[in-house]
Amino acid sequence: MPAIDIRKGNALLINGDVFVVLDRQHVTPGKGRGYIQATLRNIRTGKSVNRRFRSNENVEFVKILTKKMQYLYRAGDICHFMDIENYEEKIVPLSVIEELINFLPEGGEADIELYEGNPISAQLPASVSLKVTETVPGVKGDTVTNVMKAAKLETGYEIQVPLFINEGDSIRVDTRTGKYLSRS
Description:
By secondary structure, the chain is mainly β. The protein is built from one helix and 15 strands, in the order ββββββββαβββββββ. The strands form three sheets. It has a five-stranded antiparallel β-sheet, with no helix packed on it. It has a five-stranded antiparallel β-sheet with strand order 8-7-6-9-10. A five-stranded antiparallel β-sheet has the order 13-12-11-14-15, with no helix packed on it.
């Protein structure tokens, strides 16, 4: 297929190695032909590389399987997930879900993408509900402006929340930006 069809999350076969597209940009310089600038992660080595493709260059896409899995626990750089359909446990390296671990409490669900049985990436919903475990009490009357305070969530992630949020409250967090959305 042509390189213009490359999208974030696609798996590509390049020189015998499988790469996952982390980011892609279509660049059209003022002079010359457009090209695709992509950031790729090698699933075997875990290293990221930048690669430039001509728009009309053919690339080989690889079929990946997506499974809904439940996050069980983390042990060092290894995360343990359970397949919801057949209850098999799957080990996922922290490097695969590193940016998402802040929004995934134990027992939470994620879509894990697999290539030949090996996890290559993960997806979470656009927003998740998490419990506030630590925060300072808000000062009454300090609501003239949009004042925020620090709060620690059940996953250990620290976030800025409005003053009216207290310990034990559940809040919705945007998994793409890591920002507070609302009380849930």
